[in-house]
Specification:
The chain has helices at residues 5-17, 20-27, 31-45, 61-82, 101-106, 112-118, 172-178, 230-238, 248-257, 286-300; strands at residues 50-52, 57-59, 93-99, 122-128, 142-145, 154-158, 163-170, 192-196, 205-209, 212-216, 222-225, 243-247, 261-262, 270-272, 275-279. The protein has 302 residues and is of the alpha/beta class. It folds into 3 domains: 5-69, Orthogonal Bundle (Arc Repressor Mutant, subunit A), CATH 1.10.10; 88-155 and 273-300, Periplasmic binding protein-like II (D-Maltodextrin-Binding Protein, domain 2); 163-272, D-Maltodextrin-Binding Protein, domain 2 (3-Layer(aba) Sandwich). Strands 7, 8, 11, 12, 13 and 14 form a 6-stranded mixed beta sheet that branches. Strands 4-3-5-15-6 form a 5-stranded mixed beta sheet. Strand 9 (205-209) and strand 10 form a beta hairpin. It starts with a helix and ends with a helix.
């Protein structure tokens, strides 16, 4: 049964985006064109692939099975077509990265502008989220992760700072009212601004000094979703709501301005920096190869 690859790609775009309009934005096609392609595919296969309502579009059971098999197959087609990039003067195409919000804020701003300037024919598509996802299943070429979240069958390349720290801070007005803790356990008597991952797990507050590691589970008036609402937590800390623990680089501008004051700085814990990781394939798409080479050169020039 001959099936148009464009119709299959249209189905994938709509299913991934959860709607025809969002699929059109992501693929660069028109919503009406995608709708007609999906109808054509369903008619050819004789089965409904998408359940359509006024609010959402979702794969049927048959559609979900098809999508599961199509994703790797279409990736192979893209890889095959990408071979012609080797005959171009400059690499071209789309590079899709899945990254934590912290990396999008603290790591990529120093890399993305010069990379795009060096490779004007490459388009970067950044998906920033803090839930742990399968990068390939999410349709991405590569991701940024930290040591504890790297998958063993992936290649990891250092990107960004190699050492980072978590910083704890509060507004001077809050500390004047409630006192300045001298030991991490004293945080249990303070209002602390907590975080929660998409999984529902709360972020851990861990401190270390001269070999002593202290883990505390403080409570307070505000808990925010990690990544999506982190700026709200920072603003609340500046306003005097409570004590916050976050990446030092994220808090650094406010520490330098005096809007936040360091708390328990001798106890701030350091950790290794992030990695770009991607499948260990012999052949890499040209945009990803260009990005890997660029961050290697960028790192070596520091």
């Amino acid at each position: 049964m001959a099936t148009d690859l464009g119709d299959l790609a249209a189905f994938v775009a709509v299913a991934e985006a959860g709607g025809f309009r969002d699929g059109a934005r992501a693929s660069g096609a028109s919503a009406s064109g995608l709708s007609e392609a999906v109808r054509r595919l369903e008619a050819r296969l004789g089965v409904r692939l998408l359940n359509r309502t006024t609010r959402s579009v979702a794969p049927t059971e048959a559609g979900a099975r098809l999508l599961e098999r199509l994703m790797p197959a279409l990736s192979e087609v893209d890889a095959a077509l990408d071979v012609v990039n080797g005959f171009r003067d400059r690499p071209a195409g789309t590079l899709r990265l899945n990254v934590p919000v912290s990396a999008a804020r603290l790591v990529l701003p120093r890399i993305v502008p010069p990379f795009l300037a060096a490779y004007p024919d490459i388009r970067l598509d950044i998906v920033a989220e803090d839930g742990f996802v399968d990068v390939l299943a999410a349709g991405c070429d590569a991701g940024i992760r930290y040591d504890e979240r790297l998958e063993q069958d992936m290649i990891a390349v250092p990107i960004g700072p190699r050492r980072q720290r978590f910083a704890t801070a509060a507004s001077p007005s809050y500390l004047d009212r409630h006192g300045r803790p001298a030991h991490p356990r004293e945080l249990l008597q303070h209002a602390c601004i907590g975080g929660r991952f998409a999984s529902g797990a709360k972020t851990a507050w861990e401190f270390e000094r001269e070999g002593e590691v202290v883990r505390v589970d403080p409570s307070g008036p505000l808990v925010v979703r990690v990544g999506a609402a982190t700026d709200l937590a920072v603003d609340a800390a500046i306003a005097g709501t409570g004590i916050i623990t976050l990446f030092e680089d994220w808090l650094r501008p406010h520490l330098e301005s005096g809007r936040l004051e360091p708390v328990l700085e001798p106890w701030w814990q350091s950790f290794s920096g992030p990695f770009l990781y991607y499948p260990g394939r012999r052949y890499l798409p040209a945009p990803l190869r260009a990005f890997v080479d660029f961050i290697g050169a960028h790192r070596d020039s520091r």
